[in-house]
Automatic annotation (TrEMBL):
Keywords: Signal. It comes from Pseudogemmobacter lacusdianii. The lineage of its organism: Bacteria, Pseudomonadati, Pseudomonadota, Alphaproteobacteria, Rhodobacterales. This is Peptidoglycan-binding domain-containing protein. It comes from the Bacteria. Residues 104-144 form the Peptidoglycan binding-like domain. InterPro entries: Peptidoglycan-bd-like, PGBD-like_sf, PGBDSf. Transmembrane segments: none annotated.
Length: 164
C-alpha cells in the first residue's frame, strides 16, 4: 500500500510542477529554463516508472524444495583386535611345531581322534600338513579355544586333550 501512495504522490507532484510551470509569468521563465525543468521532471518520472517496474517483476520464482537427507546412522567404532601372528606356512605355526615334537605314534593318535570327532578327513600318516592344521583349527574353534593356537603351550594342551 505504501508504494502505491508513493507513486501517486510523485505523479501528483509532477502534475503540479507541470501546471505551475505553465501558469508562471512568461518574463520569469525563458525557454531554456522551462526546458530544463521539463527535462528534470521527465527524468524523475521515468526513473520512478522504471523502479516500479522492477518491483512488480519480482514475482516469486520456483525454488526447489529442500531434499530430505537421512541423518547419519551410528556406526560402532572398530574394536581393537590383538593381531594374530602371520606365518608363511602351516609348518611354521605353533600347531605345526608342537605336532612334530610328538612321537610318530602320538601324532597318529591325534589324527585318529580328530577323525573320530569328524574334523580330519585325510589319511592317518602321522605327518603334519594343511589337512591336519585345518582339523585342529576347526576343533579349537568349536571348543572355544582359538586363542590356544597362538601359543605353544595352548597347542600342547589341545593335542594332549586329544591323545589322553
Amino acid at each position: 500500500m505504501l508504494p502505491m501512495m508513493k507513486n501517486k504522490g510523485f505523479a501528483a507532484l509532477a502534475a503540479l510542477a507541470i501546471a505551475a510551470s505553465a501558469a508562471a509569468p512568461a518574463h520569469a521563465w525563458g525557454k531554456k529554463e522551462q526546458g530544463f525543468v521539463a527535462g528534470a521532471l521527465t527524468a524523475i518520472i521515468v526513473d520512478e516508472l522504471i523502479d516500479n517496474n522492477r518491483h512488480r517483476n519480482n514475482s516469486p520464482r520456483y525454488v526447489e524444495p529442500p531434499r530430505y537427507v537421512e541423518p547419519p546412522r551410528y556406526v560402532e567404532p572398530p574394536r581393537y583386535r590383538d593381531p594374530a601372528p602371520s606365518y608363511r606356512s602351516v609348518y611354521a605355526t605353533p600347531a605345526g611345531q608342537a605336532f612334530n615334537s610328538y612321537s610318530h605314534a602320538e601324532r597318529r593318535a591325534i589324527q585318529r581322534s580328530l577323525r573320530s570327532y569328524g574334523y580330519y578327513r585325510g589319511s592317518i600318516d602321522g605327518s603334519f600338513g594343511p589337512g591336519t592344521y585345518n582339523a585342529i583349527a576347526a576343533y579349537a574353534r568349536d571348543a572355544g579355544a582359538t586363542r590356544n593356537l597362538n601359543s605353544s603351550s595352548g597347542v600342547y594342551s589341545l593335542y594332549d586333550g586329544l591323545i589322553y
